[in-house]
Amino acid sequence: MADREVTKSELPVREQVASFGPDDSLVGVVAAPPLDGPGEPPPGLLLVNSGIVHRVGIWRMHVRLARTLARSGYPSLRFDLSGVGDSESSRAATDLDALVAGDLEDAVDYCHDVLGFRGVVLAGLCSGARDALEWAVRDPRVRGVVAIDLIAELRTPGYLLARYGPKVVRWASWQRLLLTRGSSGKEPVPTDVLAEDSPPAGEGSPRLGIRNTLTREELEKKIRALLNRDARLLFVYSAGLEFNYLYRGQFHHALPGLSGDSRLRTEFFPEADHTFSAAGHQAELIGSVARWMCASFPPNP
User: Fold this and answer.
1) What is the domain extent for residue 102?
2) What is the CATH classification number for the domain harbouring 291?
3) Does the reported pTM lie above 0.90?
4) Distance CA 284, CA 293 (A)
5) Which of 41, 64, 132, 268 could be stapled to 122 by a disulfide with Cβ–Cβ 3.0 to 4.6 Å?
């Protein structure tokens, strides 16, 4: 019986450790497609840490995403920022923003000059999304951004209705019940129903963490700067951060001037939590990013 021919998708992804930056202090893993394709290679993916989570990503998301994209023909680098995971904190930087910017510049240099990526797509979750977006605006070699649960001022009337409407309905129901039982009905509406509350601690609050919340104006300015150089953008949101995002279409309702541009795509996962901890939700997220990559930067056949 003749041996069955092994398909490209069944071949193992080629992975190797990489070190670069000041004194090779930054450490990462390169994931390359099983076989080199013909012609010019497509852009590669550069995965950015979320907070202090090292290069595997939360729930190993970066590993699974990198390997999925490699099987579709896209190389990637997942690495640790200075002082995270295996990367040493050897860079002299005046503040966190300067530290991250220096690391990302070195990582893009490595992808472009050593690995031979023809352009880079930056991807990250939460603070990683913010860092990716900030550096993308500064570096013309960045051809795209995947920003997952980026925290920004995106509240709209639809957001307020989605968040507080059910509370108002529940309070009205209790009030009617109390009135029918002889209550004076003078108890005030709970303040959390109408208050412009701050993000709670422990949920990635930008006010308590390492990043300030992006204003709507700042976000739109950065997006327009990227679109002006023909970059491709994917903004993915879960409903896991209640203070941030709650319904499909919220992004374009908050930034109506950007609606209709095919280079800007949004996805919403209403059942997922902020870290996409459920295996099914993470698989859907990875599939969505892979499809976007293939549509935005078609791989060689």
Assistant:
1) 11-156+212-296
2) 3.40.50.1820
3) no
4) 14
5) 132
